[in-house]
């Protein structure tokens, strides 16, 4: 089963008297346990598309199915709950909470998901170790480099054991060497945690690592390149 199915998605923003069509008739299926990269010029609709897949925003038309759930049929409460359990987010500017330590940032989604304390502690420690930050667990985000912050964001996104992790330009604020290390880490996490990753990116190194590459332009899918799956076999 696909992790995400989008059917005939349309989304138009309304700015004053002007309509800005951001997505036009998007049909897309995201395979499980894959790295899918959404690529396209600035303004082509990548962030809008990720926000719809992540149930942060709703389309004007069409259907969004995530993990078998027709998400538009859910109430607001049910939708927040669904999002907390199934979807992790990684952002270009990391979006960590500055007043929380590394450990607390990673723990935060588990508090929201009401995971019991002992399990929370164990999972947080394992994830912080997996992203190579055990020695920084008590530090604040402001005391970390950009690459380290993005490692925290990856650990946080994976904490609730989501089916799907969405990353909007996750390497855009990193130098190319750090960006490559972050991509390698995400790939490793994707294999280990059996998670589906969907990125938006202009970065050729991210594109090179993709199992599936989706090109969009002016709100339409221009091309989908399905490559041999390098992650692991779909189940
Ligand atoms: N909140 C908004 N209100 C009005 N128009 C918007 C809004 N967000 C995006 N748009 C418009 O929708 C279109 C798609 O924007 P989107 O942010 O999805 O592009 P993008 O591919 O992520 O671009 P970038 O690579 O610059 O991040 C653009 O024309 C943009 O100006
Ligand atoms: Mg964007």
Summarize the structure.
The protein is an alpha/beta fold and 235 residues long.
Structural notes for this entry:
Helices cover 34% and strands 28% of the residues. It has a 6-stranded mixed sheet, sandwiched between helices. It has a 4-stranded antiparallel sheet with strand order 2-1-4-5, with helices on one face. The protein has a single domain, classed as 3-Layer(aba) Sandwich (Rossmann fold). Helix 3 packs across helix 4, helix 4 packs across helix 5 and helix 5 packs parallel to helix 6. It is an alpha/beta fold and 235 residues long. It is globular, with a radius of gyration of 17 Å. The structure holds adenosine-5'-triphosphate (ATP) and magnesium ion. The site of adenosine-5'-triphosphate (ATP) has 12 residues, from strand 1, strand 2 and helix 1.
Topology:
Blueprint: E1 4-15, E2 18-30, E3 35-39, H1 46-53, E4 61-66, E5 69-70, H2 76-86, E6 87-90, H3 102-112, H4 117-130, H5 146-158, E7 164-168, H6 176-193, E8 196-200, H7 204-209, E9 212-217, E10 220-226
Helix pairs in contact: 3-4, 3-5, 4-5, 5-6
The structure holds adenosine-5'-triphosphate and magnesium ion.
């Amino acid at each position: 089963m696909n992790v995400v199915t989008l059917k005939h998605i349309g989304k138009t923003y309304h700015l004053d008297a002007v309509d800005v069509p951001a997505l036009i008739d998007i049909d897309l299926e995201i395979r499980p346990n894959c790295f899918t990269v959404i690529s396209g010029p600035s303004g082509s609709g990548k962030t809008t598309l990720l926000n719809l897949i992540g149930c942060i925003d709703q389309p004007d038309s069409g259907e969004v199915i995530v993990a078998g759930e027709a998400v538009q049929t859910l109430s607001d409460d049910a939708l927040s709950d669904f999002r907390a359990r199934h979807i992790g987010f990684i952002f270009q500017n990391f979006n960590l909470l500055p007043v929380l330590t590394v450990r607390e940032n990673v723990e935060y989604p588990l508090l929201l998901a009401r995971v019991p304390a002992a399990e929370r502690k164990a999972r947080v420690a394992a994830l912080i170790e997996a992203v190579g930050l055990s020695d920084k667990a008590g530090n604040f985000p402001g005391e970390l480099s950009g690459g380290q912050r993005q490692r925290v964001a990856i650990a946080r996104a994976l904490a609730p054991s989501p089916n799907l992790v969405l990353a909007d330009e996750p390497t855009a604020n990193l130098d190319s060497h750090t960006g490559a290390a972050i991509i390698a880490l995400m790939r490793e996490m994707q294999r280990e945690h059996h998670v589906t990753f969907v990125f938006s990116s202009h970065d050729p190194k991210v594109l090179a690592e993709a199992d599936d590459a989706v090109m969009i332009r002016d709100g339409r899918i221009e091309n989908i390149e399905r490559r041999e799956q390098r992650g692991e076999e779909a189940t």
